[in-house]
Amino acid sequence: MLKAQVKSHTVSRRPRRLRLSPNSRRLVRETQLTPDDLIQPLFARYGHDQKRPIASMPGQFQFSVDNLKDEAKAIADLGIPAVILFGIPRHKDWCGSENFSADGIVPRAIGVIKEAAPDLVVISDMCFCEYTEHGHCGIVNSPDNRHFNPRLPLGYLLNDPTLELLGRASVTHAEAGADIIAPSGMIDGMVSAIRRALDGNGLEHVALLSYATKFASAFYGPFREAAESSPEFGDRHQYQLDPANAREALKEAELDIDEGADILMVKPALSSLDILNQLRQTTNLPLAAYQVSGEYSMICAAAGNGWLDQRETALESLTAIKRAGADMIVSYFSKSAARWLA
Ligand code: PBG
Predict the structure, then answer these.
(1) Distance of alpha carbon 155 from alpha carbon 81, whole angstroms
(2) Strand, coil or helix: 301
(3) What global pTM score does this model have?
(4) How is residue 238 annotated by DSSP?
(5) Distance from C-alpha of 165 to C-alpha of 113, rounded to nearest angstrom
(6) Beta-ladder partners of 288
(7) Whose CA is nearest to atom 14 of ligand 1?
């Protein structure tokens, strides 16, 4: 200790030497953000020739399926490798039946995207909240449906009946051409149930990206407008993680590794960098992070007020997410970032 102190008096330590010019900073830069890292979310809705702005997320739209053709080409032309798809169905019901219908919104969107941009990796977000009339991520316990269990609380998300539907819907999306299925509902056993359903239907080549550690977060607020998926009663705290819990987050990731996940996702991104970094130390699976709607909207709103620079803040956030350990980042800034990085 004393020795080090003496030494630092005699030797001049000046880390600033390497920061002097843009090129010397380039030489020592540890993290390089590239379009290779990015995944663009897309919202597909029913209807014709629609490109509806999402008020809380400036620059983001709901596209009707016909309009996804040009959008998919534009994304591929920017060098972005993948999109993640969300559907806004025509019809909502107690069990989200449009999610496992072959002519549902997402299977049709996948067909159009694959035709327009065959090499674009299509990830299908797998959840029921957009498809159920109550906006929860699966079947809920109610005397109105045949899964009713009087011993369980009313409104309880019925885990195992939901697993069966997740399996069916995943097979439907995979048959339509999805390359990766991304279960996002935090339903216990969702990864193994989907893996079994895919393998049982000759779809062993379809990968699973699990939203393994998904916190019950207020940062999803704008997304619920975008996907029209707000719960009608209650909230998602009975299935999504308490943002106060890190060990439980790591336990969720361990379970998904055991169940056969190919990629693990952490979400939201900026408020979970500790979890991302801990996972980076403990697993060799690829890691994804989701820079969620609220993270996007905050930056847009502050930039809109002239309070911060949108481009600089977005790129800094994405770089920090990669530095913490993400191999890939789902971001509403993906298209803009790919342009800025070109
Ligand atoms: C569930 C899902 C949600 C998001 C992605 N998948 C919403 C939720 O859990 O309430 C949020 C994404 C975002 O905020 O950008 N289908």
Answers:
(1) 39
(2) helix
(3) 0.95
(4) T
(5) 25
(6) 265, 328
(7) 220
Separation between Cα atoms, residue 138 and residue 146, nearest integer Å? 14
Tell whether the model's pLDDT for residue 43 goes beyond 60: yes
Distance of CA 238 to the CA centre of its chain: 20
- Among 40, 184, 333, which residue has the most ligand 1 atoms within 8 Å of its CB, making it the best to mutate? 184
User: What separation in Å is there between the alpha carbon of 112 and the centre of ligand 1?
Assistant: 23
| CA gap 107, 98 in Å, rounded | 10
Instruction: Please tell me the predicted confidence (pLDDT) of residue 40.
Output: 98
**Under 8 Å CB-to-CB from 38, ≥6 apart: which residues?**
80, 81, 82, 318, 328, 329, 331, 334, 337, 338
Shortest-distance Cα residue to atom 7 of ligand 1: 220
- Least trusted range by pLDDT, from 112-116, 127-131, 203-207, 227-231: 227-231
Whole-number Å distance, alpha carbon 11 to ligand 1 midpoint, is 53
**Residue the block writes with tokens 């970032």:** 337
* Residue showing tokens 């789902």: 330
**Which residues, 6+ apart, have CB-to-CB distance to 144 below 8 Å?**
94
272 alpha carbon – ligand 1 mean position (Å): 15
**Ligand 1 binding pocket mutation candidate from 220, 266, 271 (most atoms within 8 A of CB):** 220
What are the Cα distances from residue 192, in Å, to 164, 186, 257?
Answer: 11, 13, 10
Other residues' Cβ atoms within 10 Å of the Cβ of residue 133: 12
Taking the C-alpha atoms of residue 134 and residue 125, their distance in angstroms, rounded to an integer, is 19
- Probe residue for ligand 1, chosen from 132, 170, 223 as the CB with the greatest number of ligand atoms within 8 Å: 223
Structure tokens at 247: 């060990």
Task: Identify the residue with better confidence: 113 or 6.
Answer: 113
Q: Give ligand 1 pocket residues (Cβ under 6 A).
A: 125, 127, 129, 184, 220, 223, 236, 292-293
Rounded to the nearest angstrom, the distance between the alpha carbon of 216 and the centre of ligand 1 is: 10
Three-class SS state of 98: helix
Phi/psi at 308 (5° precision):
-150, 165
Q: Who contacts 20 (Cβ-Cβ below 8 Å, separation ≥6)?
A: none
Architecture of domain 32-341: Alpha-Beta Barrel (3.20)
